[in-house]
Design a protein that fits this description.
single chain; about 140 residues; mainly alpha; about 90% helix; elongated
């Protein structure tokens, strides 16, 4: 079964996959036509190419780090709550190992999807915005 998080990640990845080749094609074409001495507009675009990659990497790294930390806290809380349920009365009707394993797997999968989505969001946002901007300027 496909979850909402998986659909969201797939949609955002597809948007990024569609935008990146457009941006690369536009910029490579611009580099080829700029010649040895690019004009001011080309120089600004070439600078932006590098600066935005560094900024997107930093934003992605920080967003994934924050989400990973939050996921670890949530998982630790779930584990402690589960342990207390079993220790304080669940011993008469304890959850099965299969149930605990499935629940833990679902939580880890959801956390991984959240971390991945947080990581691609800054890159996707820039790629889509650049594709729109460069397509407008090409007209």
């Amino acid at each position: 079964m496909v979850t909402a998080k998986q659909r969201r990640l797939s949609r955002d990845t597809a948007q990024m996959v569609a935008a990146v080749p457009q941006v690369v094609a536009h910029r490579v074409g611009r580099m080829m036509t700029a010649g040895v001495v690019p004009n001011g507009r080309d120089q600004q675009e070439f600078y932006l190419m590098g600066a935005e990659k560094v900024a997107a990497f930093h934003e992605s790294w920080m967003a994934m780090s924050r989400q990973t930390f939050a996921a670890q806290q949530q998982f630790a809380l779930w584990w402690m709550q589960t342990w207390w349920k079993v220790a304080l009365g669940g011993w008469m009707n304890p959850p099965t190992l299969q149930h605990l394993s499935t629940s833990a797997q679902q939580r880890v999968l959801a956390s991984m999807l959240d971390v991945t989505h947080r990581g691609i969001t800054p890159v996707r946002r820039r790629a889509v915005a650049n594709a729109r901007r460069l397509n407008r300027s090409a007209r």
